[in-house]
Structure formats: C-alpha cells, structure tokens
Design a protein that fits this description.
Layout: H1 2-26, H2 39-44, H3 51-73, E1 76-83, E2 102-112, H4 116-182, H5 188-222, H6 247-257, H7 259-280, E3 285-295, E4 305-312, H8 320-385, H9 392-424, H10 429-438
Antiparallel strand pairs: 1-2, 2-3, 3-4
Length: about 450
C-alpha cells in the first residue's frame, strides 16, 4: 500500500516538466495550430509558404522568364534614333544649311535563322517543364518531412511515458531495498546496484523528456511555424493493409512516373536542344527591316521610308568550337545524372519493397507480443490482488514499452508506403496529372 501511494505521488511530479517545457509555445499570440493537432491538418499546410518550396518556385519563375525572353528575341525590335548634327556642306550640295539633324524610327525582325530559334525555344520549354517536375518533387518531400516529424513527436511522447514508468519503478525498487537494508535483509552492494539502475533510468527519462521538446520544434519548423510547439498530437488513422505488387511492375511505374526522373529527362532534352542551338548560332540569319526617317537636310540619297531584307552570313568566329563543346559537355553531364538517377531509383524501390515485407512480418510479431503482454498484465494484476507477487508496475512498464514498439512498427510501415508512393509519383497524383496536361 505504501508503494502504491508513493507511485501516485511520483507520476504527477514526473509529468509536470512536460507541461512546463510547452508553456512558452502555448503563450504565443499568433493564430494557433489546433489542439490536438492532427496529421491531416499538418499535411494541409504542406503547400504553404516554406523556404524549400519558395526556392523551387523561384526556379520555375526564372525558367518561365527565360522562355519569355527567348520568345521575345524572335519578335519585332523597334528603335528610335535622334541625331543633332552640324556640317559644313559641300559646294556641290543643293542644300547649303549647316543643320544635318535627323530622326529615324527603325523596326527589325528576325525572319529565319536556319533552326537556331526553334532549338532555343525547345530548350527553354524543356527546362521549364523540368523545373515544374522538380517543384512537384519538392512538394512531395515536404509531405514526407511533415509525416516523419509528426510521427517522431508521437514516438517521443510514448518513449517518455515508457521511461517515466521505468524510472518510477526503479525508484520504488530502490526505496524498498533501502527499507530492507535497514532491517538487515539486504547488503550495501545490492542496494547500490538498484540505486545505479534507478540513476540510469533517470538519465534515460531526462533524455526522452528533452526529445519531446526537440521533436516538437522540428515539427513546428517543418510546418513553418517555429514559434508554435504543439502540446498534443492525435494518433492518425493509418492505411497499412495494402496490396504490395511485385517489384518489377513497381520499378517500371517508378521509372515512368517519378518526378525527379521526369525533371532529369526534361533537362536532357533541354541540353540536346541547346547543342542544336549552339551548332546553328553562328549560322546565316535573315532579317526584315523597316525604317521611317525625317531629315533636316534633304538630299537625293535620303529616303523617308525604306524596307529591306537583310541576310547575314558569319564567316569566322573563334568562340564557335568552345561554345559548342561547352553545350556538349553539359549534355553529357545531364545524361549521366539521368542514368545515375535511374539506377538509384531501381535500388530505392527494391529497398522499400523489401522493407515493407519485413515490416509486415513485424506487424504480426507485435500482434503476438501484444496478446502475450495483455495476458501477462492480467496475471500480474490477479497475483497483485492476491498479494502473491508485486510485479504489476513492472508489467505496466512492459506494456508501455510494447506500445512504443507497436507505434514504431506502424509508423515505419506508413513511412515506407509513403516513400514508395513518392517514388512512383502517386503521393499527390492529381498534381502530377495536372503537370502532364500542361505539357
């Protein structure tokens, strides 16, 4: 009875630091995250402003601007030139005035460049599509990061409960041993051994207590709300009973739909187009020109209106070979990145496929262990009530450890499925279809 009363006193004291460490976050004045926080709500924030997404979006905007710039290069170029000029006219000139000022409006447009503009446009289009697939991959990674950090908080809480119960039981055993030592029933070394065990459990308790705060801050940063540390998180419903296809079709699906590979393929296409553009950059070009001019001195060689078809044929450029070699080297680099990405993806799919199989077996193991723990605590409770044995507290600590192990197995399996969905491009599948429709 004395030990039960002591246990009741220790548990509230052990839980007090958790409330204390969360107090600063709960005092924030800004719009609060819901309490309890749910995984569904956390994932709904994945597309909100975050540096990782802002960086990728900026790259998309940059590529879009480059494409618009490339399109504009083939349009009309209009210029206005004004000249204030004083001359000493020739004695043969019919106009003897000294003012030779003029104003000219000139319009110029590239009509044909033997493939350069087309190749440059294809390169910018492919680069833009690649950046959009990279942005989709970043969005997927945001969701995976939030899920992982959310699960880490739940596990930190369960680990704290387990270590708190273990520390409490360690103290009770040590306290009971000291009482028996006073009665001459235990030696000093036996009491010191129990004290050492209690101190070890106390250290683990302190570590798990710190991890509660650290994991909450990490989740808050993932949600881009570093000032809001959630006090309570709801255990999410998990769809773990899913059919696992064979690894070959999974790999084929991932190779076809993975956002990162799609981005790399577009980058290869862009590099190929840039090589074609580099080959024709110093080729002939045909321009159309229209000019309207107003002159202060009128002569027989000056026309107020003029139109011309201009053909430019470069004869030599010392930079041609170097520029072409640069684009070819870039193409080889992108092709190597794509090939390496495909190899890494094949390995990643297989690793996750094997991991899911192991975690499924882990689920069965935890189910059997859970049934054993339930029977064990029932027996311990019955023996405690009969005062035959007093290991009920130890049994409860084992149940807490089982709950932690069960949650770890569940969350690992959930993350494995989510990672596999991300590799297959189906984590946010409707967004992937939207990108395809834009192409």
């Amino acid at each position: 009875m004395k030990h039960k009363q002591l246990l009741k006193r220790l548990l509230p004291l052990a839980m007090f630091p958790m409330a204390l460490l969360l107090a600063p976050a709960l005092a924030a004045e800004e719009a609060r995250l819901p309490e309890p926080l749910t995984l569904e709500y956390a994932l709904s924030l994945a597309d909100e402003a975050h540096p990782a997404l802002t960086l990728r979006q900026a790259r998309v905007d940059e590529r879009r601007a480059i494409r618009e710039l490339t399109e504009a290069e083939g349009g009309w170029h209009v210029g206005l030139t004004g000249s204030l000029r004083v001359v000493d006219p020739s004695h043969r000139s019919l106009d003897g005035t000294n003012n030779d000022s003029s104003l000219r409006l000139k319009m110029r447009k590239r009509l044909y460049d033997f493939g350069y503009s087309e190749a440059a446009q294809q390169a910018t289009d492919a680069a833009l599509e690649g950046s959009e697939w990279s942005y989709l991959e970043a969005r997927q990674q945001r969701r995976l990061s939030i899920m992982r950090d959310y699960f880490d908080v739940l596990l930190a809480d369960l680990r704290y409960i387990r270590d708190n119960e273990a520390m409490t039981m360690g103290y009770l055993h040590w306290d009971k041993a000291r009482q028996r030592q006073e009665q001459g029933q235990l030696s000093d070394i036996e009491v010191l051994e129990l004290e050492s065990l209690f101190q070890q459990r106390r250290t683990e308790w302190q570590r798990s207590r710190n991890q509660q705060r650290a994991s909450r801050l990490k989740l808050a940063i993932s949600l881009n709300r570093p000032e809001q540390l959630s006090g309570t998180l709801a255990a999410p419903p998990l769809a773990l009973e899913r059919e696992l296809p064979e690894v070959a079709p999974l790999t084929e699906e991932a190779l076809n739909n993975n956002p990162r590979l799609r981005a790399l393929r577009r980058q290869v296409e862009a590099a190929q187009a840039e090589v074609r553009a580099a080959r024709s950059y110093y080729g002939p070009t045909i321009h159309g020109e229209v000019e309207a001019a107003a002159y202060n001195r009128v002569t027989s060689t000056r026309d107020p209106l003029a139109a011309a078809l201009v053909i430019e044929v470069p004869l030599f450029s010392s930079t041609y070979d170097a520029a072409l070699a640069k684009q070819i080297a870039r193409l080889h680099q992108q092709q190597a990145l794509l090939a390496n990405g495909e190899l890494e993806l094949r390995q990643a799919v297989l690793d996750l496929w094997l991991e899911i199989q192991v975690l499924r077996d882990k689920q069965k193991e935890m189910a059997a262990l859970g049934a054993y723990r339930d029977l064990y605590i029932d027996r311990s409770r019955a023996l405690y009530e009969l005062e035959v044995k007093s290991d009920l507290g130890d049994a409860q600590a084992q149940i807490s450890d089982y709950q932690l192990q069960q949650a770890m197995a569940d969350y690992e399996l959930a993350m494995a499925w989510a990672n596999l969905d991300a590799l297959r491009g189906t984590l946010i599948e409707h967004e992937a279809r939207a990108v395809e429709e834009q192409q």
